[in-house]
Amino acid sequence: MSASSERCVVLPEDLHARPAGALVRVAARFRSTVEVIFNEKRANARSVLAIMGLNATAGSTVRVHAHGDDADEAAAAVVSALSAVA
Fold first, then answer.
1. If pLDDT is split at 50, 70 and 90, which confidence band does 2 have?
2. What range does the domain containing 9 cover?
3. How far apart are alpha carbons 68 and 48 in whole angstroms?
4. 73: nearest Cα among 17, 7, 1, 22
């Protein structure tokens, strides 16, 4: 069974290299495909360069979309990682 989950989060800081790396480590734990969406740009949550390429800044709202067997858990974990970057 394949599921889909989407959540939003307000970034506490810019998505530069350190928080992008932390996000990638979290996303890699799941089988689901996870994307981070900002200003209509989509980035695979398993790619540091793609995440940094979003140029999402502190105070911005990003969407996290996950699709797969563990989509709900993956989206929740990525949102938690994005909320905790500091």
1. low
2. 3-84
3. 21
4. 7
pTM score: 0.90
Counting the structural domains of the chain, the total is 1
CA 11 – CA 3 distance, rounded (Å): 25
**Residue 33: exposure state from Cβ atoms within 10 A (0-12, 13-18, ≥19):** middle
Q: Which of 7, 16, 46, 67 is catalytic?
A: 16
What CATH number did the domain enclosing 25 receive? Answer: 3.30.1340.10
65 is catalytic: no
